[in-house]
Amino acid sequence: MRSAISVIFDTDPGIDDAMALYLLARHPDIDLRAITTVFGNASIEVTTRNTQRLAAFYGLDLPIASGAGGPLRVGAERDAPAHVHGDDGLGGMVHRLPAAARALDPRPAHELICEMVNAAPGEITLLAVGPMTNLALALRHDPGIAAKVRQVVVMGGAFGTYGHGGNVTPVAEANIINDPEAADIVFTAGWPVVIIGLDVTQEVVMTNDFLGDLRGSPAGDFLWEATRHYQDFYDGLHGIGGIFSHDASAAAYIVAPALFRQRRGPVRVVLDGIACGQTIQDHRKPGAEPNAWSACPPQQVCVGVDAEGVRKLFASLFKNSQEGVPQ
Ligand code: BDR
Ligand code: CA
């Protein structure tokens, strides 16, 4: 029997974060141990409230710890993207969710991460789908966790594959530009990182027909409603008749890595100037002159995806979910 994959989910809900959490909550191969929250799609107060209410809605009884309210670099805060995720971070639909069922964990997010990783060396996968501030703070708090984490999977970055550049600037993706220093710390640490960037998440379009077919369960109905605002933004910008499922694709990677093609090489983040937030991988053959990448460990960047496979995986969890999700 396959043992379940133990996951701590670091998130800034966020509509696609809510989709990713649904996948983690419902997939039989996932043992979701805790959720940590971070600023990003809305303020930390809003993303934490959303996380608590989504957890109650999905029937999750697990520790939730609130984390960073802004980036490592003081003064580098950016406005929350209400035009993408709505004023409430959930497309105006937070009022449909039940109240929080459980009080917040008293620990700050980075301390919870360190304690849980130290308590289960080699077991925990960290899945981060917001700015990587909590993970960077965890590494600063206890650098020893790098050797004890099973793997780190992040949604973030854009490497130009299939012409996918940034979604905030021509080169910078939102989770990275919200805290470039944190992302650079995470990518250059001595732990195995898999990066699910716009290169692949923008290949996984979920059309309105697809999302409409998920309706019929409380979660399917909620996600249909919550994605209306999100689809207005993406359809208006790209004419895709639906949404990019960024964070749900990263969650899918954890249970189905074979759906993704990866490229190996160290990754750095541009920290200043007009290219601030750009993610660059050195994937050339070894032997080049020493550079800012050479001393950094190789990480994996996803550069190909079976988009239909990701969609099918996600949809399969709704077909099985007519019962068990609270109204
Ligand atoms: C990422 O930024 C946020 O808006 C989404 O939740 C996702 O994590 C996409 O660039
Ligand atoms: Ca997110």
Report on the structure:
- With 327 residues, the chain is α/β, with parallel strands linked by helices.
- The protein has a single domain (5-316), classed as Ribonucleoside hydrolase-like (Inosine-uridine Nucleoside N-ribohydrolase, Chain A, Alpha-Beta Complex), CATH 3.90.245.
- Helix content is 36%, strand content 17%.
- It is built from 12 helices and 12 strands.
- The strands form 3 sheets. An 8-stranded mixed beta sheet has the order 3-2-1-4-5-6-12-9, with helices on both faces. It has a two-stranded antiparallel ribbon with strand order 7-8.
- Helix 1 packs antiparallel against helix 10.
- It is globular, with a radius of gyration of 18 Å.
- The model is unreliable at 322-327 (pLDDT under 50).
**Shape field:** globular
Number of H/I helices: 12
Quick check: average pLDDT? 95
As a percent range, the share of helical residues equals: 25-40%
CATH class: Alpha Beta
Number of strands: 12
Structural class: alpha/beta
What's the architecture, going by CATH?
A: Alpha-Beta Complex
SSE string, helix = H, strand = E? EHEHEHHEHEHHEHEHHEHEEEEH
Assembly of the depicted chains? single chain
* Overall number of domains: 1
Biggest sheet details: 8 strands, mixed
Question: Strand order, biggest sheet?
Answer: 3-2-1-4-5-6-12-9
- Please state roughly what percent of the residues sit in beta strands, choosing from under 5%, 5-15%, 15-25%, 25-35%, 35-45% or over 45%: 15-25%
Rg result:
18 Å
CATH T-level topology: Inosine-uridine Nucleoside N-ribohydrolase, Chain A
